[in-house]
Amino acid sequence: MKDCGLLGMCGFFTKYCKTKDLACKGFMRIYCKGEKQDQCKRKIYRREHGKAPSDDMLPSGQMIRS
Ligand code: SF4
């Protein structure tokens, strides 16, 4: 499976890729590097709004609370 084409410019990925948070790692495995990458809500948002969503939006569409 190829990685998501937005990986290098995706705020979520660049901000959280080094995290030790297992939930974030799971999202990356399933979405960014996995079979659900075409269903990523960040990708859909970018397509609909013509700009990237907040870095804190998960691929599922939920926001990470700080
Ligand atoms: S969060 Fe979505 S847009 Fe970003 S790299 Fe992962 S699959 Fe691609």
Describe it for me?
The chain is mainly α and 66 residues long. It has a domain at 7-49. It has helices at residues 11-16, 22-32, 41-49. The model has no long low-confidence stretch (mean pLDDT 92). Iron/sulfur cluster is lined by residues 4, 6-7, 10, 12-13, 31-32, 37, 40, 42-43, 59.
Bound molecules: iron/sulfur cluster
Biggest beta-sheet profile: none
Mean pLDDT: 92
Structural class: mainly alpha
The low-pLDDT segments are none
Number of strands: 0
Order of helices and strands: HHH
Strand content: under 5%
Global shape: globular
Distance between the termini: 32 Å
- The helix content, as a percent range, equals 25-40%
The radius of gyration computed from the alpha-carbon positions, rounded to a whole number of angstroms, is 11 Å
Number of helices: 3
Note the main attributes of this structure.
single chain, binds iron/sulfur cluster, 66 residues, 0% strand, globular
Summarize the structure in short.
This protein is mainly α and 66 residues long. Helix content is 39%, strand content 0%.
Topology:
Blueprint: H1 11-16, H2 22-32, H3 41-49
The structure holds iron/sulfur cluster.
